[in-house]
Each structure stands twice: as structure tokens, then as C-alpha cells.
Specification:
This protein is an alpha/beta fold. It folds into two domains: 36-129 and 255-326, D-Maltodextrin-Binding Protein, domain 2 (3-Layer(aba) Sandwich), CATH 3.40.190; 130-228, D-Maltodextrin-Binding Protein, domain 2, CATH 3.40.190. Helix content is 46%, strand content 19%. The chain has eleven helices and ten strands. The chain has helices spanning 2-31, 48-64, 79-86, 101-108, 144-154, 168-180, 192-200, 211-219, 267-281, 284-292, 305-326, and strands at 37-41, 68-72, 94-98, 120-136, 159-162, 185-188, 206-210, 223-228, 254-262, 296-297. Helix 6 (168-180) links the parallel strand 5 (159-162) and strand 6. Helix 6 (168-180) packs across helix 11. It starts with a helix and ends with a helix.
Length: 330
Amino acid sequence: MKLKKTLFAGIAAVVSASTLLGSNVASAQKDWPTKSVQLVVPFAAGGPTDTIARLIAVPMGQSLGQTVVVENVPGAGGTIASTKVARAAPDGYTIYIHHMGMATAQALYDKLPYDPMTSFEYIGQVADVPMVLLGKKDLPANNFKELEAYIKANGSKVTMANAGPGAVSQLCGLLFQSRMGVRLTNIPYKGTGPALTDLLGGQVDLLCDQTTQTIPYIKDGRVKAFGTTTMKRLPAIPNVPTLNEQGLKGFEVKVWHGVYAPKGTPQPILDKINAALKKALNNPDVKKRLEDANIDIVPAEKISAKGLKDHLDREINVWGPVIRKANIPD
């Protein structure tokens, strides 16, 4: 009898401790956040991803009641930052914003220390940055049909700049060449800045670049715009047709961005982060500043875990074959 009482007492103590632990965990999730949240950016300050991160950080912090601090962790095409976040404590105090590089990493790098599809919790897509296929001012072609003929006639004599191995500008250029059935001479630079400078100076023929820095040059006539990489024409340059409507059916490249958290982050916390993200993207000031930078906020249904996960899966299937076929880096 004494043994039975002792056993029951032990069980009761374990149940009580478990209940208390569960209560503490639930309370911690309910009270979250109680300190600042780190929003990790995988690139240096000043780029499009960093710009978006800083625009949403302040209103997200206001919604959460704690400061959201942007932390730049550049290097290795986002691998360093992605690994840092994947290994961070799943407590909601470390979140991550990354662009389409999350979808290209597996094809670009051997033996990644994380898995884009399994190492993170998905919070939602954020915004898309469209791209434009540009040509130097004195290129003989004046429209896409003439560009097609020029490329077919000159082949590898045509030069195409990019921002380096794995950069979005390189991927866009390789997809363009794949769809055109040609191989141009690809010239890598250390960033889109110097690549665009040489395009403006006439040292290279073509460049696929983001609208955030190219629209002024298009409007000033300093470069030729042969087509946007979107399904619909862009309001900022309505006279520039899409590549899709000019024969490259389904050609779409956007520098999309998503927000993630370490795998295992509790759902109640993920829900709070998602709500703060949605509120930030509905902030009138944020919307105007993104619009002024030619950055498109994604539709509401994409600002969700499912929206981001489904999009990432599709993008991996799009870019994997392109990267492997091109044998990047080249």
C-alpha cells in the first residue's frame, strides 16, 4: 500500500510538473515578444532586400510592441545568413527575409548546411521587384523583333553582363538565352552597379536588371528597354511590352522576397509575426515608398505560410534545371 501511494505521488508530481511546464510555455508564447526581434538580411545594407527589410521593420515592431532590428549578414550568396537563421533558437526572436536566392541555392552550391524546404517555418511572401531586358543605347536593334534577328545573326559575339555567379541578373540572362535557344558571351561583374555602368558606357550589349535602378535610365533614353520580365506591363514604363507578349510565353522573373523563421518556432508566434507583416504591408507610408521604388507588394493570399511555401517549391523547379544546364558558375 505504501509503495502504491508513493508511486501515485510520483506520477502526480510528474503530471503537475508537466502541466506547469506546459502552462509556462503557453504563457511565454502568449506574452511574446518580451524583447527586440532580429530581422536577418543576407546582403549588405543599401540593396533592394535591405531596403524592403528596413521599410517593414518599423511598422512590424509597432504591431509587436518591440523593436524589430535589421541585422545584415552578407556573404556566400546568402548561405551564411541562411545557416545562421536555420541554427537559431526557434523562439521567434530571429526571423529572416531572403529573395529568390532561397530557391536557387540548392542548385548553385554543393552540400548546403541547411535545406530551404525543411529548415525553416514559412511566414509569407512580401514583395516582388520586376526586371527589364536592357540594351546599350547604340545597339542596332530598336525593338524585340529586331533584337531576335540581331542575336541570331551574331550569336556569341553578343555580350550580356551580369552581377556575378548566381546573381538574379545572371539567372534572368541565362533563362532568356535558354528560351531563345542561343548562347551569348556572358560577362560577370562584382554587382549590378558596375554592370549597369558598362552598359551605359556601351562596353556590353545586354543586361537583365531590376527596375529599382533602371527606370530613370529607360525614361531618359540612355538604354534601350526590350521587354519586362512580368506578365503585365509596368505602370512606370507602360510603353515597354512584356517579353511574354512578344513571344516568350510565360517568361517571368521577379526578385521575390519572403519572410521565414527557424524550424520549430511555435505556431502562435508565427501567427503574430504574420499578422505584423500583413499590417506593415498595408501601412500607407510603406505602400507608397515601395511603389515609388517600383517594388510590388504581393497579393494578400501570398502573404501566408502556404503562399510562400508553394511559391518557393515552384521556383526551385523553375531555376534548378536552368542552373544545372548552364553549369554555373561559368
